[in-house]
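User: My collaborator sent over this chain with a note saying "see what the structure looks like." That's all I know about it. Can you take a look?
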Amino acid sequence: MSAQSNFEKGEKLLVAKKLDEAEVVFKEVLKSKPSDIKTLEYLADIATQNKSWLKASQYFKKLKELRPTEADYFYKYGGALAMRAMEVNKFKALGLVEDMKLAFEQAIVLNPKHIQARWALIELYLQLPGIVGGSESKAIKYSNELAKFSPVDGHMSKGRIDEYFDRYTDAEKNYIKAYEIGKSKVTFQKLYNLYLNKLKDPKKARELKQKFEA
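Assistant: Without extra context I'll predict from the sequence alone. Here is the result:
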């Protein structure tokens, strides 16, 4: 009963955006209910919002162990590791890479249409140096998989790969296709930024903005 009343108190504190106080209360709940999924989820979300990536990865690791068929727990665990890798030195960061890959790959095994996990792997293979597994061909592989069930993400990811390797005219073609299909703020922004910052074509950027706002 005490754990239940604390849990409800924690939820109220969350609603009031008192994250630090809510964290203290949920940790107390966890002492008597160490495998409570919802409590662990709240603590993982609080850690994520506070950008406490080590804590977040620990909570998501526990969640994926408790619910090994839940794709999102694997994805979020990999994501927390990726953010953690950006905070530590390069040697420590490289030590996290394999766990990241495995987490994202397992998310796809559990949910073959997991869009975010594929995006994460594309970014991972682009950012990694070739000597430790970076690979344009692997990034393209996941981009092609995305295209099969989400044409917008397929073109967006191909555009991202082209842009990363400074193939700006190819990136433009892919971003245009993504924009024509999606007509969303995200697809607009990618193409607009490419015109403005990479192709240095303010006229095209202005025309695209006028069209989008219309």
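A starting point for your reply to your collaborator: The first helix runs from residue 2 to 15.
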